[in-house]
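Hi V.,

Quick status before I head out on leave. The structure for the redesign project is tokenized and pasted below; the design run finished overnight.
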């Protein structure tokens, strides 16, 4: 089981991955595991393919990854969440999007970080926003008990300073 888990949440183009990278640069004992990564790791083991190969050729492996993801969820809705929690070491999950995922990770003792950015700035950073009303974009909007709430409406340096303050509190 993971020693420590830190989860990030936020809407598309909010800076979740950037914030997680800042944190992991300061805490190298943590490894990244996005929700999709665990499926890629398992697919790679089964098909003798590296994670890097899958990332470099996503279209080639997409259907197989979808099929494996669906297979796992058919076994148990928490199948992939349990796989992440079951890893050894310290884990950073960069893309928690659903209440159920949030609750499973919190019950496993995860530290939660929500990245907040206004819509116009997210659009300026990432381009056209797609699926803004999708459950994966709105399901965590009303969660109030984040361990840390980060305003990312300014520049990279401000985000970095805010994340480094969290790192100090976590240590």
């Amino acid at each position: 089981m993971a020693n420590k888990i830190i989860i990030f949440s936020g809407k598309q183009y909010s800076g979740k991955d950037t914030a997680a990278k800042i944190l992991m640069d300061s805490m190298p004992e943590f490894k990244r595991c996005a929700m999709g990564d665990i499926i890629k790791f398992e697919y790679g083991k089964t098909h003798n393919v590296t994670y890097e190969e899958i990332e470099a050729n996503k279209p080639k492996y997409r259907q197989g990854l979808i099929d494996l993801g669906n297979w796992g969820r058919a076994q148990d809705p928490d199948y992939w969440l349990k796989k992440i929690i079951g890893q050894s070491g310290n884990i950073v999950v960069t893309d928690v999007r659903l209440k159920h995922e949030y609750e499973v990770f919190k019950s496993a003792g995860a530290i939660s970080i929500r990245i907040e950015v206004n819509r116009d700035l997210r659009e300026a950073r990432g381009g056209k926003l797609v699926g803004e009303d999708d459950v994966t974009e709105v399901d965590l909007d009303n969660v109030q008990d984040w361990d840390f709430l980060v305003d990312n409406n300014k520049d990279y340096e401000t985000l970095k300073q805010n994340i480094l303050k969290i790192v100090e509190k976590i240590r």
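Above is the designed sequence. The radius of gyration is 16 Å.

G. will cover questions while I'm gone.

Best,
W.
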